Amino acid sequence: DAMVIQNPRYQVTQFGKPVTLSCSQTLNHNVMYWYQQKSSQAPKLLFHYYDKDFNNEADTPDNFQSRRPNTSFCFLDIRSPGLGDAAMYLCATSRDSTGTSAYNEQFFGPGTRLTVL
Amino acid sequence: SQKIEQNSEALNIQEGKTATLTCNYTNYSPAYLQWYRQDPGRGPVFLLLIRENEKEKRKERLKVTFDTTLKQSLFHITASQPADSATYLCALSQGNLIFGKGTKLSVKP
């Protein structure tokens, strides 16, 4: 089945130790997103890729970076995790031919739960 | 900036009843509004999309309405079942999607 895969499902890191979360998709969608979701909060968009074009949200901290080496894979790098970065990180994809990604449904992966000690 | 309010953090109903969840927004009406279901520890799953020129959309036991005058969307689940228990998120289009915090629905047998 076509899907969005996130690895690992659970990640524990130490305060200040860089960590990378990965996302892959078999849907061949051109748009990929990274969201941060804290307990009982709304998913918050960090950034997205429209094909190879990177789009950073204005309030995303510099501590968060992303890479998309090809259509299928996207990575979230947290350079120096703080206690406040503990959250569920969700990867999503959509197929967009209009230039406005919000007009299409998004397909989410199961998420990676990040714990910072 | 756009703010989204989902009427209550939790809604408890009896099996077989209709669940009605509310999504209100504050500023301009979005062109599109989407509803997602999220189970604990999982990613959201898309349910329905409604456009600003559509008043109502249905899918099986689900119905969504969109009232741009009231700046409100209602999400209904008819003949609710315990398996419908989950958190339901509304999301508005503003360039990208802006999600609400969700309403946690519990359907008791």
Question: How would you sum up this structure, described in words?
Answer:
The complex is a heterodimer of chains A (117) and B (109). By secondary structure, chain A is mostly beta strands. Chain A is 0% helix and 50% strand. In chain A, the strands form two sheets. In chain A, strands 2, 4, 5, 6, 9, 10 and 11 form a seven-stranded mixed beta sheet that branches. Chain A is globular and about 40 Å long. In chain B, strands 2, 4, 5, 9, 10 and 11 form a six-stranded mixed beta sheet that branches. In chain B, strands 1-3-8-7-6 form a five-stranded antiparallel beta sheet, with no helix packed on it. The mean pLDDT of chain B is 92.
- Dominant shape of chain B: globular
Count of helix runs of chain B: 0
Main pleated sheet of chain A: 7 strands, mixed
As residue ranges, the low-confidence spans of chain A are none
Distance between the termini of chain A: 36 Å
How much of the sequence of chain B is in beta strands?
Answer: over 45%
Q: Sketch the topology of chain B as an H/E string, one letter per element.
A: EEEEEEEEEEE
Helix content of chain A: under 10%
Strand tally of chain B is 11
Shape call of chain A: globular
Oligomer description: heterodimer
* Count of helical regions of chain A: 0
Major sheet of chain B, described briefly? 6 strands, mixed
Uncertain stretches of 5 or more adjacent residues of chain B? none
Mean pLDDT of chain B: 92
- Greatest interface: A-B, 24 and 24 residues
> Which structural category do the helix and sheet elements of chain A fall into?
mainly beta
Secondary-structure map:
The complex is a heterodimer of chains A (about 120) and B (about 110).
Chain A: E1 4-7, E2 10-13, E3 19-25, E4 31-37, E5 44-50, E6 53-56, E7 64-67, E8 73-78, E9 87-94, E10 107-108, E11 112-116
Parallel strand pairs in A: 2-11
Antiparallel strand pairs in A: 1-3, 3-8, 4-5, 4-9, 5-6, 7-8, 9-10, 9-11
Chain B: E1 4-6, E2 10-14, E3 19-25, E4 32-38, E5 45-51, E6 56-59, E7 62-67, E8 72-77, E9 86-94, E10 96-99, E11 103-108
Parallel strand pairs in B: 2-11
Antiparallel strand pairs in B: 1-3, 3-8, 4-5, 4-9, 6-7, 7-8, 9-10, 9-11
